[in-house]
Structures are given as structure tokens and as C-alpha cells.
Amino acid sequence: MLSIQNLSKTYGNGIQALTDVSLEIPKGMFGLLGPNGAGKSTLMRTLATLQESDSGSIALDELDVLRDKESVRRVLGYLPQEFGLYPRVSAEKMLDHFAVLKGITDAGQRKQTVQDLLQMTNLWEVRKQKLGTYSGGMRQRFGIAQALLGEPKLIIVDEPTAGLDPEERRRFLNLLSAIGEEVVIILSTHIVDDVGETCGSMAIIDGGRVLRTGAPAMLIAELKGCIWTTAMTEKGTDLFNADEAQSSWTVISTRKLGGRTVYRVYSEGSPGDGFEPAEPNLEDVYFSTLKREQ
Q: What tens digit of pLDDT does each residue of 23-69 get?
């Protein structure tokens, strides 16, 4: 269990990155969902012992994360949004090097560990290949391999599927799901589908504050009967004026379809004629939460 209590952080330029953040994160996949600039990366760096907070506490089981950083690092796996690799070194040699840094000094144990992780991440066949030749998805899977060194209790991944093609994204999420049965994995992202497909619990964060927490299915169920749709052309219809739509309704998302704009609207009752009820989804949860906090 990872327990975060009343965590706050203000940078020197006056930006309040985190404000009184409290979360209880159990073993398994946990999604941290929010737009760019929401405070996700600040929270991840603090959990990874890479920066200090101004106030609050973090406990990983019996470990005090903010005070006992060295002990935390021994049980931490971290895949940041951007990480550098030596392009002319093979995956096998680089992972062996990381294993030494992680404290696996026995050569036989280290060789077996490297082999197991490369096989787990489906990189065994390309283990001799230079990292500079790897695709984006292969690099991310290598990043997870290094994060798994030392049998971590906490794994943090920050925007891991950004830029991946659909096949690599699916392979990567499947890998995370398989790992997440035994440890705490925090998936920090702005991609709603990544959380909905893999996480048993989640939080929505924006402006450095936690806005909603819960299981994705539970949060979706809370919107039952509150999501409505309608469509109109650029010039509107007999029923609606497109220019007034945004101010008249709580519009949570729009999309273009066949020359028309489809509006998804939050309302506890029917907004009026021309609307149809819609089944809510996690994107509705996300956008309606952000919209209602504005």
C-alpha cells in the first residue's frame, strides 16, 4: 500500500504544482489521469525521490518515502516520460550495467535476471541489437525491463504510451497489466483509454489537486442517466443555435461526424428536445470532472 497524505509543492517561480494531495493506492494498477500541466509529473518525481515536497507525507508500507530515500530507491522501479540510453550499446549489455548499479553483483544471478527480464519484455531475440535501432515501443519495453530490476514494490511509469503505434501500445499495456498483479504500479497519463483498459482504481488530477478517485467502473456508473447527445451542422438547427451551445449546456466533449458536430452534454435531466440519452464512458467521467471544476 502506498499512502500519500496532504502533499503540497510550490516551485520557486510561485507555481503551485501540488495542493494538499492525498491518495491511498493499493497493490495493482493505479491510473493517475490529468491534462498536461496538471501536476502529475511533479507527483511522480516526488514519489520517485527525485525532488522534495513542501509539506505532507508518503508511506510505502513501513517506509517513509520522504525521509528514507535510499531504502525507497532499492524497492523502486521508475520509467520517466523521457529517459536517455546509449544508442551504440546493446540492450543486453545496458541492462547488465543497470543491474550492477541496482546492486546485483553476483555474475550468475545478474545473467539470469537480465535473461528473464529480456524474455518477459519480448526483447530476447533483439538483445544483441543496439538500443539506437530500437523502435519507440521497444525502447519503452526496455525501460520497463530496467524498472523491474531488483524486484521493486513500487513501479512508476510516466506517460508511457505517448507516441506508440496501436500495436506497441497494446503490447506495452498488456505487459504492465501482467506485472501489476504483485506490486503497486502507478500509470501517469493524459490518455483516458490507457487507464480504462488496465487500471482497477484511479484518480483525476488537475491544477495540482485531486478531483475524483475510485474504480473506473464505479465512476462511470455514477454518470448513468446524466449524459446526453445531440448533433447539428455548423449553422445550427431549428432547435439550436450552435454559437450558443457551449454557454447553454454543460458540454463535456464534441466530435465531427459526417459534416455535423456531435455534442456530449452533462445534465441530471434531459436538456430539452432533440437530445438522446447516451451510455457514459470513462472519457465522460474525465471531461465532466474537469468541466465542473472550472
A: 999 999 999 999 988 999 899 999 999 999 999 999 999 999 999 99
Could you list the residue range(s) of the whole structural domain that residue 233 is in?
221-293
CA distances from 145 to 75, 77, 96, 233, 244 (A): 14, 9, 11, 50, 52
283 membership: H or E segment, kind and range:
helix 282-293
What is the domain-level CATH number for residue 121?
3.40.50.300
Nearest to 201 by CA among 47, 24, 73, 49: 24
Question: 192 and 239: one domain?
Answer: no
CB burial of residue 132 (10 Å; 0-12, 13-18, 19+): exposed
> How do residues 30-43 score in pLDDT, each as one tens digit?
999 999 889 998 99
Q: Exposure of 216 by Cβ count < 10 A (0-12 exposed, 13-18 middle, 19+ buried)?
A: buried
Beta strands 154-158 and 76-79 are parallel
User: In this predicted structure, which of 73-77, 89-93, 171-175, 287-291 has the lowest mean pLDDT?
Assistant: 171-175
Picking from 196, 215, 234, the residue at the C-terminal end of a domain is 215
User: pLDDT-based confidence at 238, cuts 50/70/90?
Assistant: very low
- Which of 180, 195, 215 finishes a domain? 215
Q: Which single residue is written with the C-alpha cell 483509454?
A: 193
Q: Could you tell me the pTM of the whole model?
A: 0.86
Per-state percent for the chain, helix, strand, coil, to nearest 5 = 35, 30, 35
